[in-house]
Amino acid sequence: MNALVIDGRAVAAGVRARVAREVATLPTPPGLATVLIGDDPASAIYVRNKRRQCAEAGMRDLHRHLPGEITQEAAAAVVDELASDPQVTGILLQLPLPPHLDAAALIERIPPEKDVDGLTERSTGRLALGRPGLRPCTPEGVMVLLDEIGAVLEGAHTVVVGRSNLVGKPMAQLLLQRNATVTVCHSRTRDLAAVCRTADVLVVAAGVPRLIGEDAVKPGAIVLDVGIHRTENGLCGDVDTDTVREIAGVVTPVPGGVGPMTIAMLLQNTLTAARENPIT
Amino acid sequence: MNALVIDGRAVAAGVRARVAREVATLPTPPGLATVLIGDDPASAIYVRNKRRQCAEAGMRDLHRHLPGEITQEAAAAVVDELASDPQVTGILLQLPLPPHLDAAALIERIPPEKDVDGLTERSTGRLALGRPGLRPCTPEGVMVLLDEIGAVLEGAHTVVVGRSNLVGKPMAQLLLQRNATVTVCHSRTRDLAAVCRTADVLVVAAGVPRLIGEDAVKPGAIVLDVGIHRTENGLCGDVDTDTVREIAGVVTPVPGGVGPMTIAMLLQNTLTAARENPIT
């Protein structure tokens, strides 16, 4: 069998175009405040991409670049200012922060209504309790890809590899809300391949290059690869796609699979946040 | 094989005695405000038991009984008063509430520091994010029973049947934090018995009498039964214990298994809350 390869770039472009159309119908455009602290080159690239796509979708780019040596108190004051600014409908604190800062404490200052990364305790609690709220972007993007291919989740056995707060744990909650049976695996899981072989839908967010091979995939399974790693032979994911695609029914490529969905869902969240709390 | 039957009453008594000893060492006893709205007979019995055990552990019983026809605003005002009262170190809103009240909105008024039921969005988020906080009592009680029998959770395959906000979902989080592989099943799960048979530790909180029979249990498994149902032939749980105990390694009885742990853990949470935010 040769698996269907999902074109995440195309799906993400579709989401961005839809968001842009909907933004154009709003009386006031949403305003996204990306906050970059310091000069980490990778973070700078991520933030630049977010700002560019935000602007392309017709949203206001309310970026803040803060010096790397900023104190916790000064950073908190900036977040508080953005939190109370009615022009700012979404706040994104680019991680990681310089090590002298308490990232969790800063994130908690973001009101859940503006928490477009879905990382505060309240957003996390709302997701776990099944209440409306803003969800972390990457797992939300995986759900859009699953819907794009018409995956039937109700009653399906889904396995999530990885239990990060950013991907694995919210992923499991989103699948559970769609009435899937959900198994969460991680580095301590015994016989990972055997557990993964039970999956109709396998989401891999372990952060280990090519962790999942053909021995870990049920024939016909849908395999979504959240990992991205730079190797001597180019980029690869957490899934050994070259072998897995011979067995799986659907796979996502790396790059061009789940990756492009993250910023697309950030735009979607920013739109959602602005709709729920419009600028008055 | 004949399973070990955990004596939940004895374990709960041990927890209560330990809490009482620790309360006695505090400069000021913790104060638990149970809030009962209306006259539901079952709720009245639960609250009476909580108050009695609270008093027996040396804590202050700061009970409030509110009329069933109270308005949302008036109930909110009572919760706010308890929230700001430094003598009150824990607040428990007995559920269910009369249908005209918005229970979730009232619960959200409880500060996470006093949320001894662990049901607010912030407590739920703290659990999901792996941060310190107060946890729902029943799943916490299951964890104590597992520790009591020396269950090895790291790497174990655990299956939780049921996905309620009160038990199933927080249960899964607690098991995950202990490095178990965790599967969450529910009413839409296909071939529930087959999934349950993969479990080294099986926690059943489905609310369906005798849902889990011997065909759903791996030989030697640890089976914890959170259900309790009144039938013509007396009380029973979600597990058909008479047949399952021939196969399982460990079972909890109903009554006298998980049930008694809930109030014991409420006392533990009230102690923890008072320690973290002592009366000044």
UniProtKB/TrEMBL annotation, chains A, B:
Residues involved in NADP(+) binding: G162, R163, S164, I228
- Cross-referenced PROSITE patterns: THF_DHG_CYH_2
Is Ribosomal protein one of the keywords UniProt gives this record? no
Annotated Tetrahydrofolate dehydrogenase/cyclohydrolase catalytic domain residues: 6-117
Catalytic function, reaction form: (6R)-5,10-methylene-5,6,7,8-tetrahydrofolate + NADP(+) = (6R)-5,10-methenyltetrahydrofolate + NADPH; (6R)-5,10-methenyltetrahydrofolate + H2O = (6R)-10-formyltetrahydrofolate + H(+)
User: Family assignment?
Assistant: Belongs to the tetrahydrofolate dehydrogenase/cyclohydrolase family.
Q: What does this protein do?
A: Catalyzes the oxidation of 5,10-methylenetetrahydrofolate to 5,10-methenyltetrahydrofolate and then the hydrolysis of 5,10-methenyltetrahydrofolate to 10-formyltetrahydrofolate.
The protein in question is named: Bifunctional protein FolD
The scientific name of the source species is Amycolatopsis pigmentata
Q: What's the encoding gene here?
A: folD
